[in-house]
Amino acid sequence: MVSYQPLQIGPLRIDLPVVLxxxxxxxxxxxxxxxxxxxxxxxxxEMISARALCExxxxxxxxxxxxxDESPRSLQLxxxxxxxxxxxxxxxxxxxxxxxxxxxxGCPMRKVTRHGGGGALPYKRNxxxxxxxAAVTAAGAVPVTVKFRMGIDDDYLTYLDTGKLAQDVxxxxxxxxxxxxxxxxxxxxxxxxxxxxxxxxTDIPVLGNGDIWQAQDALDMMSxxxxxxxxxxxxxxxxxxxxxxxxxxxxxxxxxxxxxxxDVSLGMFRHAQLLCEWFGDYKGIREFRKxxxxxxxxxxxxxxxxxxxxxxxxxxxxxxxxxxxxxxxxPEENLxxxxxxxxxxxxxxxxxNWLDDPYDDHKAGxxxxxxxSGG
Length: 375
Prior knowledge:
This protein is α/β, with parallel strands linked by helices and 375 residues long.
């Protein structure tokens, strides 16, 4: 068994070194609650735009909400302007009582990178430093962490500089998605980059992200890289029960088998209930639809029921459909089947002359503040 220590992020002690990666349209309050019911960890909100938050955008304010009993309150911000980031962090702490703030510098979406935001921004070292420093200063005792990719592409790798700069201005931890912006979600994550970052950043925890589909993957990543914790993204889509398996793996307990379809059905209904309670019946059940394909991925249940579940109308309808599912097991060869984004590679679109000088004062455009997901 891999030995591990609880994850210490500033004053926050996370008993298991497991973090839920922010995913747009997925890691809302209902999904965070569901995952927490399966196992311990740090459960981070969807990524929101610092600028939209400061402008009191109604949709953004809803995304920033937490359940009354949610603790710790962990939220991810994206932004390209230090002053706006400072204002957003202050607002989150004073108004919403947020306990942890993560900043996303890994979004690979073209509509973000073309304006210098997301995964493009760490190339501009001075701008990156100013944004993180502004957040840390505004946050005070509340820990600020930073998530990023290896770089724009193989010719412009920035992750070592990014991690060191974040550490130097007071970030409480860093997390590396071990792919470049160019890769998107294709190919294999380069875990050796996580190991290199761990050797380079020595004063704060280093977390690894990429290709953790089952509990053994998390143990392997920590063993191979020496990282202090793991960040789970696409691996938990349709499989919130992965957090229970991770809890067993990290504590040396016998790993529970993957649930049969009957157990998955119970989890699906619980998820739909939570979404309906949070968003209301109409929107909640429609938010649930996209999850059905992920829940059924790898299980032999037939194509017709998959289509029906993707059109489910209400909780009673959902229950009637779930009752027809065969109680089949998940074949071992399907444990690591990919879910979520699989696109890539891509040509990265950047602002004109963005790559000329990594230390110039070229500012990102405000459009780079988009709340598009990704990391």
